[in-house]
UniProtKB/TrEMBL annotation:
PANTHER family associated with the record: 3-HYDROXY-5-PHOSPHONOOXYPENTANE-2,4-DIONE THIOLASE (PTHR47916:SF1), FRUCTOSE-BISPHOSPHATE ALDOLASE CLASS 1 (PTHR47916)
SMART domains tied to this protein: DeoC (SM01133)
Protein name listed in UniProt: Aldolase
Molecular function terms, GO-annotated: lyase activity
Pfam families: DeoC
Top-level taxon of the source organism: Bacteria
Naturally occurring in which organism (per UniProt): Microbacterium aurantiacum
Length: 275
């Protein structure tokens, strides 16, 4: 088994074979509501029995000791950051994506996989060309290191009115051609499209959670994605932006590992109440 396959397996739950990942790599544009206490969130996730955590290089450098104990979540490290405007904390469309650290650096700091975005909808095609070239070079670096490389199509540019299933299919193929060994994708509206993408690309897929939503729906949606063939999910704001993050984590595990939509919905509802 290759080093890449071994590290992908490290992201799987040893009992269930699926992967519940919490994404907390949202700080490149500043503070995100609900994510202010970065250390407190990482401390809680470190003992939560989730399978993985997605974080940026600054938090990896600072907080990796919290994730070094046996049974701690495995780390997927974000290599890049997006530019959304001249000032932090301003909600503008994405204009550029630049790599902040190397695959070798995150591997040395304990990551078992690396992740970058494929920036889509940019007005500047030269910025997109530069980004895709960098993705290809990074994929080659990761391959030399035996490090899984997750690519996330990021539909964040100003020149996108909507994202439909066909666009997700095209983006998944782009990411595959650029050298991804893992895909992190928005959920298509129809589960059969997700199954088709997984079959056609031959890659493990983590489905992302998207914008936070209160109330019902997220637990059942996760079960649908898992039934469609996803290896796991990588969900951020729908976990740590809720008042009771512990309940949300339990809901995530109920959906991913047990495919128990009713229990997951119950837990996500309780996560909207103070812990």
């Amino acid at each position: 088994m290759s080093g890449i396959a071994v590290r992908i397996n490290q992201l799987r739950n040893s009992e269930y074979g699926t992967s519940a990942v919490v994404a907390f790599d949202h700080g490149f544009n500043g503070m995100v509501p609900g994510g202010e206490d970065a250390r407190g969130i990482i401390e809680a996730l470190a003992v939560s029995d989730i399978d993985g955590i997605l974080i940026g290089p600054g938090l990896l450098r600072q907080l990796s000791p919290l994730l070094a104990h046996p049974g701690a979540p495995r780390v997927i490290a974000t290599l890049d950051g997006g530019t959304f405007g001249a000032l932090p904390g301003v909600d503008h469309p994405l204009t550029h994506a630049r790599r902040a650290v190397s695959p070798e650096w995150v591997l040395r700091h304990g990551a078992v996989a690396a992740k970058m975005i494929l920036p889509l909808g940019l007005g500047d095609t030269e910025a997109l060309a530069e980004a895709t070239s960098l993705l290809g070079r990074t994929a080659a670096e990761c391959e030399e290191l035996g490090l899984p490389f997750m690519i996330e199509p990021a539909f964040w540019g100003a020149h996108l009115e909507k994202v439909d299933d066909e666009m997700i299919r095209h983006a998944a193929r782009q990411a595959t051609e650029l050298g991804a060994t893992i895909l992190k994708l928005p959920a298509p509206s129809r589960p059969e499209i997700l199954s088709e993408i997984i079959s056609h690309t031959g890659l493990p897929v983590w489905v992302l959670g998207g914008a936070p939503q209160s109330g019902g729906g997220i637990g059942s949606a996760i079960v649908e994605w898992m039934d469609a063939g996803a290896l796991g999910v990588a969900i951020g704001r729908n976990i740590w932006s809720r008042p009771n993050m512990v309940a949300a984590v339990e809901g995530l595990k109920a959906a991913v590992h047990h495919r128990d939509a009713a229990r997951a919905e119950e837990l996500f509802h309780s996560a909207d109440l103070p812990g």
